[in-house]
Amino acid sequence: MIELYESQRAMRNMRRAAMQRGVVAILDVGSSKIACLVLRFDGTDPSDDGIGSLAGQSGFRVIGAATTRSRGVRFGEIHSMSETERAIRTAVQAAQKMAGIRVDHVIAAFSGAEPRSYGLAGQVEVMGTTVDEQDVARVLSACDAPDFGHGREVLHAQPVNFALDHRSGLIDPRGQIGNELSCDMHMLTVDAQAIQNLAYCVKRCDLELAGLASSAYVSGISALVEDEQELGAACIDMGGGATGLSIFIKKHMIYADTVRMGGDHVTSDISMGLQVPMATAERIKTFYGGVVATGMDDREMIETGGETGDWEHDRRTVSRAELIGIMRPRVEEILEEVRVRLDVAGFDHLPSQQIVLTGAASQIPGLDGLASKILGQQVRLGRPLRVHGLPQAATGPGFASAVGLCLFAAHPQDEWWDFELPVDRLPARSLKRAVQWFRENW
C-alpha cells in the first residue's frame, strides 16, 4: 500500500508535468477496441484548491484520435501481452500522426479486474481554529483501510463527504472554523495483476503511465448529466467483453462493479446459433439485431452470407424473429446480473434512481425498454458529453469511457494520495499500529 501510495503520487506529478507541457494522450483499453485521443491543454494548470470532480477545471481540445480493433484483451483484462502491445502502438501512432506531435505520457482506463467498493470513515480533532490542508490529510489517513486481501491494489480512494461539528455534506472544509472533522471515503480495489500487466504493457510501448482509472468511473463522468451525478444515478457501460457499473451521488462515485459479459457474448451466441463466422455474426447483429420482436419480424428475412464455397449453405436466410430469439436471452442475463449488483449496492435507497445505459452494446434497438422492465427504474440511453475537437466518429456511446477519461485527465477528483499523509498514519499499517500499542501499553 505504501508503494502504491508513492506510485500514485508519482503518476499525479507526471500528469501535472505533462499538462504543463501541454499535451497528454488518453488510452481506453477495451475488449473490442483500443481508442487513443491526444489532448492539447491551454496552459492553465489545474491548481489543488478544490475537492470535487469539477475542481480546477482547465480547457483542452482533442487534436488527434484513433481506434483499432482490440487484440489480446478479454473481459477487459490483458491476456496476450505482445498482441495488446501491437494494438496500443497502432492506436497511439495513428493518433500522433493525426495530431502531428509526439506523445510521451498516457492516462489509461480499463474495465474488468474484479473491482470491489468499500466505504470508509475517519475522524480527527482540528489542530488550529480553522481547517487546513494538514487536517484534511490527517482525517483521510484516519480512515481505516479494510483488509482487502493479498493481490489487490487501491485504484481510487476519494473523499465523498466531509462533516465539521455536526455540519455534514461539506464539499471542501478547508478554511472553515470548527473543532472536529470527519470524512467518508470511497475506496475501489482491483486485482493487482491486471494493473501491473497494463502498466508493463504501456511501458513496453515506450510510453510513461501518467494515470489510471476504472472505465466504469470515467463512463459515469461523461454519460451522466450534472443533475444525475448530484441527485443519484447509476451508469451501466455495456462494452464488448465486460459491463461496467458505477453509482454516483453528490457528484461522487460511491460504488463500482463489473459484470464479465458484454456485446461480444451476444455476437458469440449469434455465431453459434446461426452457424456463421464471428465477423458475419457481428454484421448481422449491427444491422438487424434487436431484443423486442413484433409481428413483422417473422416475415423479415436476413441473408446470412458466407464464404464456405457450399452454395446452399452460403445462401441460407433466417427470420429477424429467430435472431431476436438468440439475442434476447443473453441481454436479459447481463441485465439480471446488473440488477443483482445494484441490489447489493443498496441502489433502492437513493433519492433518485435514474439509470443511464451507455457503451457500444447499449445501441441494440429496444434495449432501454427491456432494461426498464428488468431493472424497474427510469432508464435512458446516454451519450458522452461534447468535448472540444472530438471527431464526429468518436461521439457515440462506445466512446463514453474515452471521453470520460479526457474529463478525468483535465480535472481529476482529489484522492488521498493528493495530500501529504503522515507516513506512520498511512492506511494498511495495522501491524505497525499493533506494535506501537504494545510499546505504549506494556
From TrEMBL:
Lineage: superkingdom: Bacteria
Gene that this sequence comes from: ftsA
Keywords linked to the UniProt accession: Cell cycle, Cell division, Cell membrane, Membrane
InterPro entries: ATPase_NBD, Cell_div_FtsA, FtsA/MreB, SHS2_FtsA
Main location group: membrane
Role noted for this protein: Cell division protein that is involved in the assembly of the Z ring. May serve as a membrane anchor for the Z ring.
Annotated ranges, domain SHS2: 24-223
Topology within the bilayer: Peripheral membrane protein
Name of the molecule in the record: Cell division protein FtsA
Biological processes annotated in GO: FtsZ-dependent cytokinesis
Description of how the protein assembles with itself and partners: Self-interacts. Interacts with FtsZ.
Native species: Ponticoccus litoralis
Family: Belongs to the FtsA/MreB family.
Entry GO CC: cell division site; cytoplasmic side of plasma membrane
Cellular location(s): Cell membrane
